[in-house]
Amino acid sequence: MKSTFLKITLIAFISLGVISCKNTANEADTAVEEAAQATEMATEYSVDAAASQINWEGEKPTGKHHGTISLSSGTIHLNDGKVEAGNFTIDMNSINVQDLTGDDKASLEAHLKGTAEGKEGDFFNATEYATAKFEMTGIENNIVKGNLTIKDKTNAIEFPATVSIDGDKMTLKSETFEIDRTKWDVNYGSKSVFPSLGDKFINDAIKLNVLLVATKA
């Protein structure tokens, strides 16, 4: 009996240790780091806001919506064709829904931006938080790493992307990746935040795709 009790206690202790290690690893994976700094040899490129955009897609059990968000500014620093540092600012008032028209389009855009009366804080509350920002912390093996700030909340993210240069123009194009919106307190319709929603929920994951075009300053 004593031997059995010791075995059970040991298994429980090991299990707790494994869980603790996993939690620590997850926290380390999403740790916010200092923004990368460009060297003196780097060349600065200014983001072409008109040619750049972020594509987004949100989904729920009954369907999904997609659209775009515009960039307002940004700079990228390249050294010998490689990105050393960079940042860009996102215009949250530019949220555009592409799969709806008329009143339905206007209604969803107002809800997402938070310009609909009584729904200001449901999603992005662009009146109070007019911009979001991304700062690179590094890029390695075509994986861009950085800090994304939305609604004054900053979390580390990473995504695969390719960088190409054509004369004085550079293009950074990401593959589609996902972020968990609840990490930025965008909690409306989240089943992980409000378990009683049943099947009337909106997925926490938002799919994103970044197209960034910049020209030599």
Automatic annotation (TrEMBL):
Q: Where is the Lipid/polyisoprenoid-binding YceI-like domain?
A: 44-215
Q: Transmembrane ranges?
A: none
PROSITE patterns referenced in this protein's UniProt entry, alphabetically = PROKAR_LIPOPROTEIN
SUPFAM superfamilies for this protein? YceI-like
Arranged from A to Z, the UniProt key words for this protein are: Signal
Q: Specify the signal sequence span.
A: 1-27
Pfam families according to UniProt: YceI
| Protein name as it appears in the record | YceI family protein
Traced from the root, the source organism's taxonomic lineage reads: Bacteria, Pseudomonadati, Bacteroidota, Flavobacteriia, Flavobacteriales
